[in-house]
Amino acid sequence: MKCQGCCRYKQDYSAWRPKLGAEDKKELGLLITSRDVLDGYGYIKTIQNCGEHFCKFLNAKTNECGIYSKRPFECSFYPFVLSQTPEGVKVYVHLSCPYVQDHLPRAVFDSHVAYLKEFFRSPEIREFLSSNKQMFHDYTSYAPELLHLFDLTFL
After folding, report:
1. Cα–Cα distance between 129 and 87 in angstroms, integer?
2. What is the C-alpha to C-alpha distance for residues 113 and 41, in angstroms, rounded to an integer?
3. Separation between Cα atoms, residue 42 and residue 140, nearest integer Å
4. Closest CA to 89 of 135, 41, 49, 30
5. Strand-strand pairing, 8-9 and 52-55
6. How many CA atoms lie within 13 A of 153 on its CB side?
7. In a 3-state reduction of DSSP, which class is residue 37?
8. Which residues have CB under 8 Å from 17's CB, separation 6+?
9. Higher model confidence: residue 68 or residue 153?
10. What is the mean pLDDT of the chain?
11. CB 124, CB 118: distance < 8 Å
12. Model's pTM, two decimal places?
């Protein structure tokens, strides 16, 4: 899969970088054992190239993810994000994503949001999220870039 907008950051310490949960770490195994892959907080490190910071696993020349088949939950969930706020966990969509800009609002987007609500009702997903809370970011400082979709009341 080719990544055109995501996987690139303004700073090497960007909060938009994926943070790995326990399941992600288990899935990636040997790929993340080196200290040059994850920072001390569990975020994937970046590589700087021509003034941009790229995900460690993104091939900047081909725009392909080197771990696409095993990509972390946050990567597969994007442009939707889970945000840990003082009020609880909220589901947002990142309005800066070119795909979102092209498809919002449309029936296909609304259909996907309905699918996500059902997805989060699954006992397996609830268990996964409950045991991987360390990967949730607080995106409240990015509020202008986000559209709130719904809350996850079970967390």
Report:
1. 17
2. 30
3. 20
4. 135
5. antiparallel
6. 2
7. coil
8. 9, 43, 44, 45, 46, 55
9. 68
10. 87
11. no
12. 0.86
Give the contacts of 137 (CB within 8 A, at least 6 positions apart).
15, 19, 81, 82, 83, 84
Q: The tokens 């939707």 sit on which residue?
A: 80
Amino acid letter, 103: H
> What are the contacts of 26-35 at 24+ separation with CB within 8 A?
27/70, 27/72, 28/67, 28/70, 28/72, 31/67, 31/70
- Residue 114 · residue 80 · CB < 8 Å: no
Distance (Å, rounded) from C-alpha 46 to C-alpha 7? 9
Phi, psi of 89 (to 5 degrees): -90, 130
Of the two residues 60 and 4, the one the predictor is more confident about is: 60
pLDDT class of 77 with cuts at 50, 70, 90 = very high
Q: Which letter does DSSP use for residue 59 in this model?
A: E
Mean pLDDT of 7-30: 86
Three-state secondary structure call for residue 49: strand
Report residue 11 as tokens: 């700073």
pLDDT band at residue 126 under the 50/70/90 scheme: very high
CB-based contact 36:42 (threshold 8 Å): no
